[in-house]
Amino acid sequence: MSRHPKIWLFDLDDTLHNASHRAFKELNASMAAYMVTYLGLTDEEAARLRNRYWERYGATLTGLQRHHGIKPAHFLAETHRLPGLDAHLHGHAHDLAALRRLPGRKFLMTNAPRSYAERVLAAIGLSSAFEGLICVEDMQMFGHSRPKPDTRMFRAVLARLKLKPEHCILVEDTLMHQKSARSLGMSTVWMQRWLRKTPDGRRLQHRPAYVSRRVRSLAALARSPQF
């Protein structure tokens, strides 16, 4: 990879900011409320179905579109309003400095909608750090949402941007996304700055073979030997 410009693909939630502290709690609640309203489920049924779709597809939206005919634009607009969230998002100047020290091109690649991504980046002071944003609206195939970890989507997005997988490095907190990326030839960085436990409370310590490197801050990534 040293003969080619590095292409960094950064996740957003729990990679560039602490989404588990507040944003994910509010998002989970708003998604459950959406399912109660538009699918006629109870709160308990909505919570179970949301978890099932996330575990199976990597995104609740994929399951809702595939099995219930939910329109992505409506779902994303309704569930990502999150009034007052911005006041609880905080950035650090050293994160921006670390991103700028990394050699190569940088893109944000998130399963979140563009409006949410732009809002969060502005709140944490990283709007200027990326050449472009690859958001869930950009992850459509044959009329269906195909967010991370869908390997077909990875191929299609990289082809659209004229990027080769072997020149790309995915920086993520979610292992299933890294596994798909690595299967295509990308390098992977497991960010454990905030998320260090599984949903059932087990500590995330073992580095799987498909993870190229594990770091706990952007500064550590910038300091580490490059790929």
UniProtKB/TrEMBL annotation:
Gene Ontology molecular function, alphabetical: hydrolase activity
Protein name: Hydrolase of the HAD superfamily
Keywords: Hydrolase
Domain of life per record: Bacteria
InterPro entries per the UniProt record, alphabetical: HAD-like_sf, HAD-SF_hydro_IA, HAD_sf, Pyr-5-nucltdase
Residues in the signal sequence: none
PANTHER family according to UniProt: HALOACID DEHALOGENASE-LIKE HYDROLASE
Keyword Phosphoprotein attributed: no
